[in-house]
Task: inverse folding
């Protein structure tokens, strides 16, 4: 498994029953004191084909691939996958949902998940 993820931040969630024609994309989870960042490789997915949902602590990322066949051409050999992508991650940390952000660049989706102020690490001094 190509996951950089700790149990306290996120864990893969079970796929829904309609996920039969999808595949799990490769992804990486990183963090700093302010946010988590999920980078997901989804080649062939246009910006309009990306759908993000956050419900009950589960982040679902759907990527619908654009058709790769050229009109009027009959495929003779195919190694390109036609499946769409689906990644579901269970998040165990409260997020600032008003500041969620995502961008797609060169086939890589980058989702920024800002931490709620109460869940950020704090340092206390000893008096």
Result:
């Amino acid at each position: 498994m190509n996951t950089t993820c700790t149990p306290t931040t996120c864990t893969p969630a079970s796929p829904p029953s309609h996920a039969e024609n999808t595949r799990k994309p490769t992804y990486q989870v990183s963090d700093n004191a302010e946010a988590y960042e999920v980078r997901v490789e989804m080649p062939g997915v246009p910006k309009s084909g990306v759908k993000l949902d956050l419900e009950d602590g589960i982040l679902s990322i759907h990527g619908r691939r654009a058709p790769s066949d050229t009109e009027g051409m009959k495929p003779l050999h195919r190694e390109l996958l036609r499946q769409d992508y689906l990644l579901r991650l269970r998040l165990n940390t409260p997020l600032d949902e008003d500041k969620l952000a995502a961008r797609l660049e060169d086939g890589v989706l980058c989702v920024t998940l800002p931490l709620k102020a109460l869940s950020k690490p704090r340092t206390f001094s000893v008096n």
